[in-house]
Design brief:
The chain is of the alpha+beta class. It has two helices and seven strands.
Length: 104
């Protein structure tokens, strides 16, 4: 069964490598996003079940704000389809729950 993009959970990840404007000339990575990148490339079919969106480090993160508001822009984040509920949800915006890691 294939899911329509609007029915898929959205997985927001930081770009694999990025710069922090406050520390010019250095490259950084998000260990949590890279761990999920590894899972996506290792588990057959996982990426097809998700709408994976890689975004830049700079804030405001407009793509995240468009889905769940501006209160929590930390990444990575899994945004559930409208109306889907989870006991693991760390927050909600309108009728969408989302799941974030333990770190703010």
């Amino acid at each position: 069964m294939s899911l329509d993009a609007t029915d898929k959970p959205i997985l927001f990840l930081l770009d694999r490598e990025f710069e922090d404007g406050q520390i010019p000339g250095q490259r950084f990575f998000c260990r949590h996003s890279l761990l999920l990148e590894g899972a996506l490339s290792s588990i057959d079919g996982l990426d097809a079940q998700l709408d994976v969106r890689r975004i830049g480090f700079a804030r405001p993160r407009r793509e995240v704000i468009a889905e769940i508001g501006e209160q929590d822009q930390s990444l990575p984040k899994l945004v559930l389809p409208q109306g889907v509920r989870s006991d693991l949800a760390s927050g909600a915006h309108r009728d969408r729950q989302y799941i974030s890691g333990a770190e703010p």
